[in-house]
Amino acid sequence: YPPPPPSQYGQLAFYPSNPYMDQYSGSEQGRIPRKPVRATQACNHCRARKQKCNELQPCQWCTENNLDCQYKTASPQKPDKTLIQLQQSVTNVSNTLKDFIQEFGAWQQNVESRLLASQDLNPIPNHASLEAAFAIPVESVGADISHAPYSSLEERGLQSEHTTPAHKLLELWASMKGFTEGVEYLHWLIQAGQVISEYPLQVEQERGLLRVWGHGEGLDCYDGAQGHGRPESSHDTNAASPAPRREDLSGHWPTNVTSPSILNTSTAREHPVCNGGHGPDGRPDFCCSVLRSLLLSYMQNMHSLHPFLNQSKLQRIFQEFEKKYSPDSKAPHDAPPSAHQLNPGSKRKRSNGAFGEPCSPRGAIEPSLRNAIVLLVLALGKVCSFKSRFLPYPQSDKGAYGNGGWGSCRDSHPKGSFKGDTSDENRPRNVDYLPGMAYFAYATDILGNQQGGHTIEHAQAMILAALYISQFARVLESWSWINSACQVLVVLIKANYDRLHRRFYMSTEDKTLSAKERYRLNLVLCAYWTCLQLESDILAELSTLPPSNLTAYQNEMMYPDGICDYFAVDGEGPEIVHEQNLEKDRDMMMYSSQIRLRVILNEAHNALYGASGNKSFDPSNVKDVTDHVKTHIDVLESWRLLLPSFLAWADDDPPPTDLNTARLRAKYYGALYIILRPYLWIAIHVIKYPPPHQDSYAGNHWAQPNSPLTSGDVVTPLNRGIDRVELTDDQRNIIKVASQCINSTIRSTVAFDRVDAPDDSAYEGYESTRPTRLILTNIVGTLHAQFGNMLVLAAVYNSRLYPHLPNETRLNLKTLRALFKRTFDILREVAPNSPILKVDLEILENV
Fold this sequence. Notes:
Blueprint: H1 44-49, H2 60-64, H3 81-113, H4 130-134, H5 153-156, H6 169-172, H7 184-191, H8 199-207, E1 209-210, E2 217-218, H9 265-270, H10 288-303, H11 311-325, E3 359-360, E4 363-364, H12 369-384, H13 430-433, H14 437-448, H15 456-470, H16 475-495, H17 497-500, H18 502-506, H19 515-541, E5 566-568, E6 574-576, H20 582-609, H21 622-641, H22 659-685, H23 729-749, H24 779-797, H25 813-830, H26 835-846
Antiparallel strand pairs: 1-2, 3-4, 5-6
Pfam family, one: Zn_clus
Domain Zn(2)-C6 fungal-type: 42-71
GO molecular function: DNA-binding transcription factor activity, RNA polymerase II-specific; zinc ion binding
């Protein structure tokens, strides 16, 4: 055989091909020719000649031929909507976090400045700092509020028409369909063409006003002031209006203040427990012991919740009032009041319908704003000292709810008309019967002549009036007083904006304030934050009421510094009290914590349920919900981590016995429930669950993916089928968050069950051990929220979600029955004073 031909590259045959070696090869033939890069844009001349352009300015061809080189303007690229939305969401989240951190910084600075050296008031150790919690540099704390995602004051404040309220669930949750069937008033509402979910505002409007000097409550639509006396006379111009005995209903002002007979003292004696505040002589009781007792009652029950009045100054004006007007005061008798004090008969004769002011044996009481504040404090002290579970309520007119509604002018038998038993003289007047009404009646008469005042004292008096009338579950009347106070405070804020803003206190400028000016600004701040909480609490449940602009400043106003540290001295300005008081400091820290929690809730209302917030994401999309919820959850949990040790608690702790502590925990768990509720809605209405294992249930109860359980089915944690069916990781995560929401709902519901009970008292089976009436600033809002909690728990129990809940979920049949029982009990305590809660009770009984 001939030898093989020699290889041209035999010396390289043993080496594999290496791409990096080609660049060092001397052979030009082995190179692959590079494909010319096409010009992305050619000038006009090259484009016309269809010639390659080197894209210079000017290009080579135009330079060689001395031509004007111009390029065609490129059309802008169409923006990517998804990218724009993503950038906007990231910017909004970033700005929101910056605002929250700024608020946390101000709140933490305020709380830490009030901490005493004692061990009990030290913050909880080993808590992550704010910067670590949010992973944002310290420099971002000073972010300007102008960069917030909301551009106008109206958008930054609490928005109306949000979908947070409990009654909105009846409309928005398909799983609650049928809960309202058989409720008489709601059936009447549907026939009248109204929406079921608007029943709270409807029944509040129909109940009318409280007749302070008269009997009961009503709209009084046929008293001649709003047209003809009766509907049937509306087309008869010659028909005479009826002349009902108006004094039997609306009453009249006292015409002779020196006579004990101006008041129905026999009625007061027949109801000694329900004395409105009159003494044995029929006048408002101003005895020294009564004044001191009612002031103490106010301080213990109401001032501890909202310390917006200066305690030392309040005590001083009470002492002056006592010296001047108490019949048993040992002070020398003062000179008779001057002519401007409205003493009937001192200047001229008055008609029988003239205004009469409160009177004591020492003389007529001057109708001043200071005396109005004293009278309102007395009224609040009187009603708060009434500890029986059932607070007296206005005696209803004939034709009340049982006969077709609470009485509207549209009804054929209106509650406000003067018919039937309305002239029954045995029925007590409100001023004689309702605790504290004797003081409230005169105080509001004084405030009626102060309309248009814009001082801090006017705002304080209006807040007191709102707090008093709210004790009788009169939401609209309370809101009206609060709204008036809010308007006064908006004026004060705009006049002192620079010195009330947080940046003023973050800097060194506040050091230049005098003690008198600091005291005055603290009064404004305390009144501002009190009004914000009271208004927000009402609007959280009655979302259709128009909000004031007060909440628009919630991210800018400084937190109060504690007006208890100051007292006024003879009008020369305040002096600082250097003596530390542990209880006062704790109250102020509790107050500041409540404020911060309220702001977090308002932000959640707007972002998750507001008119603009709930349109920015798809509530049925888990990712969208997670993106919107996570920020608020992180902020809420960071707030809890920063609480001082005496306010800290564990989730498994029994409900507290202190009212203020119970309010704090109830609001925290309520906020957690509100923020997590979108997850629960998805878990009930969106997720498709596989059928449970046959060993767990006898038969398949669900013909549709999310149909409820049939009545009578009993499911307990012992036979939940979560471990026997296949669930995806996403489904398990959603169920886990839904379980947290359910547990928060239960804890929020029972937070007040041990108030005023002994500290060592047991709490078992969700059975309330509260021994006295629950005294809150907005009892209707609290109980209406508990009503909503029960609707949600019932919907969960009847849904396909329930069998898949983890065992640590507190909800089961026994728990649900116990919660229904305790909710029935507390609703029945207040329902006689509240038509809203009466309908809530009927709905729950129907469920």
